[in-house]
User: What shape does this take?
Amino acid sequence: MEEDNQSFFWIKSEGVRKLATKNLVPGNQVYKEKLIVKKGIEYRAWDPFRSKLAAAIMNELERFPFENKTKVLYLGASTGTTVSHISDIVGPSGIIFGVEHASRVARDFLDRVAAHRSNVIPILQDARNPKEYFSVFGKVDIVYVDIAQPDQTKIAIDNCERFLKRGGYFFLVIKTRSIDVTKSPKKIIEEEIEKIRTKFDVLQSIDLHPYDKDHAMVIAKYRN
Ligand code: SAM
Assistant: This one.
């Protein structure tokens, strides 16, 4: 994926071409990322070593459905690095429900991201209990999952069944070592993809090397 697509941008800074998003909250930094001003517009450099969605873009992600007004359910928000860039992209009319179960991490997520961005709704919950997400309303366009749990594919599918609209997109980060250390990463990814195929059309599987070791991202579409 090479061209600017208005969701993210390629910006030259100090002679280097950098991936970036347009800052929804000018002046606000989330993880000490570089702020770059071009023609009066402020952008935030999007670091593929810190965000697996950026790593997927660097590694030839073919379809990027995040755009203005998109509604996203994000499981494993952590301190909000990736959520903050999605927040830039979906803009004030979009929304991201960010689920995180670890309270210390969730506090950072609140302070760094949700407090500054009205399109981010933090949900301090275990992703195993989607019926407890009281603030999620209606269906979402994308479910993004990065929770690094051995049973994460099942958790992810449960969440999709409840919240993803038909034809919506599913992004699943597979941390192969958190599933089974004795199996080869390739085999693990194949097995996880098989579980998804029952309900989704798998579009792409991306190895996130060299940005992330032992991680893959699978992109799928919820069958109509
Ligand atoms: N996606 C983040 C990013 O790109 O900035 C990084 C996510 S980190 C690898 C995984 C996160 O998932 C951790 O913050 C962890 O606390 C959270 N997590 C793990 N299991 C969870 C669960 N069952 N419910 C909610 N969050 C969970």
